[in-house]
Design brief:
The protein has five helices and five strands; from the N terminus they run H-E-E-E-E-E-H-H-H-H. The protein has 150 residues and is an alpha+beta fold. The model has no long low-confidence stretch (mean pLDDT 83).
């Protein structure tokens, strides 16, 4: 089983919250800002800072070249991460009030259903713009159902 790069686009580095890039041939996740790699064992990323490996300048340059060849930029990865967080934070307070007004069960079901559908669509996103838009939808959906369970 191979890890899906579209799904891994949502992962953030546990140390600096920066984007991680999946390098399938290397079986690692690479953070270009910290020049660190995170091993993938049995198709599961090991996201512990203590388990990460700091790579030298030559190795970092080689891995950065692979990332560049894939067409993924650091700013694009950050945009994918921040779209979700911003939409989630903006929705929380409003969703709590909507739950009081229209019923918690109804908003929980709407948020969970939207989150499920948007997750599948984000995994199949053909480009960065679509992925960022779907990540924003995921943030709104999560913001809708989170206050309903608190």
């Amino acid at each position: 089983m191979s890890l899906d790069p579209a799904l891994l686009a949502i992962l953030a580095c546990p140390e600096d919250k920066g984007p991680l890039f999946y390098l399938e041939d290397e079986t690692v996740l690479f953070n270009p800002r910290l020049a660190r790699t995170y091993e993938i064992r049995d198709d599961i990323p090991v996201m512990l800072v203590e388990e990460s490996t700091t790579v030298g300048d030559d190795e970092a340059a080689r891995l950065q070249a692979i990332v560049t060849d894939l067409g993924v930029t650091v700013s694009g990865g950050q945009l994918v991460l921040s779209a979700y967080t911003t939409a989630f934070a903006a929705t929380l307070v409003v969703a709590g009030r909507l739950g009081d007004r229209y019923g918690r069960r109804r908003l929980l079901a709407a948020g969970a259903g939207t989150f499920g559908v948007a997750s599948v669509l984000a995994a199949l996103a053909p480009n960065l713009v679509t992925l960022v838009a779907l990540r924003a939808v995921l943030g709104v959906a999560a913001g809708l159902f989170t206050p309903q369970v608190l």
